[in-house]
Amino acid sequence: MSVQGEGLELRIIKVPPSVDMMALVGQADATWRAIEAAAAPADLHLRGDVITVRGQTGPVEAGCALVSELLAVLAGGGVVGPDDVTRVAGMMQEAAASLGAPAPAQILTESILSNRGKTVRPKTLGQKRYVDAIDRHTITFGIGPAGTGKTYLAMAKAVRALQDKRIKRIVLTRPAVEAGERLGFLPGTLGEKIDPYLRPLHDALQDMMDPDHIPRLMELGVIEVAPLAYMRGRTLNDAFIILDEAQNTTPEQMKMFLTRLGFGATMVVTGDITQTDLPGGVHSGLRAVRAILQGIEDLAFVELTSRDVVRHRLVSQVIEAWASHDLKRGLSK
After folding, report:
1. Angstrom distance (rounded) from CA 322 to CA 79
2. Are strands 50-55 and 8-14 parallel, antiparallel or unpaired?
């Protein structure tokens, strides 16, 4: 419903019965306050199940579009919190500038995997493109800063593929960068020495599967978590293979890993080229591989940015500030 007069426009939106009002308002009204801030300079009011949007035509249209999209997310079973409001507003701006981009509600209601009442979903347009690329390609490179869900989403796709019996095993690997003298000084067996490097993969796996089942699946070889060096000389058929922290591979290690690909397998390579831990003078395989493999069919490179960070809002600001600092430093040299 729309009412006009005195240069202002008033529109009325009825909250559908399928939407939980508490989910819309949030704890201590935090979500509603975030919606009001995102819709400014349009003026929003909520009374009962009726939302009124008042202001100049442009801001009112934008405010109504935002509210309608958030209601669609909630009606579709998605979750909306204060941070999600900001993400939806950002996605709507991206979608307006990108022909054919999916609506935020389509992204935030897509379910990759559900376990113990928790659902893993893409939360940004970049994450949606990433999981779609994994579905459509045999090898996908997910490149981006910390907190963009590169590894977590890949893990969710792997577990879902195993549940659907599209693969027979999951192989998770990452380079142990300090697997030389420093690692030798650590106490314990070789497995205990390497475990700290693989712990993040174990943690993500336990989020997505019953922790009681994981040891048994590892004993059977259905799930394998191992250092990258253990991949040499193997051919991995009917497997979902994830290489994490790939920025810490050398070009030779990257070639070795990619040539492990077997029939019926899917590979995902993740990394952040801005956080390489290799010794000085050693080139990153993740940096090299894009120039080498660009243009090969059935292989995708997906770039994630600070807009795709789903951790605390300060994380994306830190990433942006650091990138700006590095750019200025590079220009000054």
Report:
1. 31
2. antiparallel
